[in-house]
Design goal:
Distance between the termini: 27 Å
CATH class: Alpha Beta
Structural class: alpha/beta
Strand content: 15-25%
Number of helices: 7
Low-confidence stretches: 213-221, 223-238
CATH superfamily: P-loop containing nucleotide triphosphate hydrolases
Order of helices and strands: EHEHEHEHEHHEEEH
Helix content: 25-40%
Shape: globular
Radius of gyration: 19 Å
């Protein structure tokens, strides 16, 4: 389904709004846990991982709420210095100790843009972390995905956005459209695995009949965080 985004030995940039990236990475984590061997290592720069949403994805897919929870390992950071330590030291060490299916670092940009560090420090940290992640991906043969709101970053920190844009192997844009996730690669490739499930017999009607039938169609509503709350018997591993 999402295997095109999980190319081993590659560092990929996934661009989208912060809200969309959080939701998409939950979906991608669920996919990796249930289709690949090893753990998902989530480097969390803004407390974005939601165990309740993960539980809901499990339940709607026919699994127990806490299925795979022990293979989702979260490392949360609050300062640029913690972010640097996690990406350049702790992450390579953990991958060496744990079979890894996927690494997520999101939002990659937030702590590098922090006012606590000077402009030249922001640039140095960004360059050094990207070089370290590239080396880790190739040495350990794992996919590493960076989540960034590039539209915003180009406006607020264009130098950091350019360094990141040039420092990855592949770039994707993540979109939420008509009740499903879609990924568009820079070369035009589109990954839209849920498209076929959204097609109904109404799509084959002549245009004039579609108008008449439209009032009977209830559009799919995206589930918002907070609508569902599921108790997890065994909490997510940290």
């Amino acid at each position: 389904m999402w295997s095109s985004l999980l190319a081993s030995s590659k560092v990929a940039l996934l661009s989208g709004s912060g809200r969309d990236l959080r939701g998409f990475f939950q979906t991608l984590t669920h996919f990796a846990v249930h289709t690949r061997a090893g753990s998902v290592l989530w480097c969390d720069g803004d407390h974005g991982f939601d165990p309740y949403e993960m539980a809901e994805l499990n339940l709607t897919s026919g699994f127990a709420a806490d299925d795979g929870a022990d293979r989702v390992l979260i490392k949360r950071c609050m300062t640029p210095f913690q972010w640097d330590s996690v990406l350049t030291r702790h992450l390579p060490e953990k991958i060496g100790q744990t079979e890894t299916a996927l690494v997520i670092a999101t939002p990659f940009d937030r702590l590098w843009s922090h006012e606590e560090i000077q402009d030249w420090e922001q640039e140095d940290y960004t360059r050094f972390s990207l070089a370290s992640l590239q080396a880790t991906a190739k040495r350990e043969n794992v996919p590493i995905l960076l989540g960034v709101d590039m539209e915003r970053w180009w406006k607020t920190h264009p130098t950091l956005a350019r360094i990141t844009q040039e420092g990855v192997d592949v770039r994707w844009r993540i979109e939420w459209m008509q009740g499903r996730w879609r990924a568009v690669r820079e070369d035009g490739e589109i990954v839209d695995p849920m498209l076929r499930r959204s097609v109904t017999l109404l799509d084959y009607l002549p245009e004039e009949e579609k108008v008449a039938e439209a009032t009977a169609v209830v559009p799919t509503k995206r589930k918002m965080r907070g609508e569902f709350r599921t108790r997890i018997v065994h909490p997510m591993a940290r």
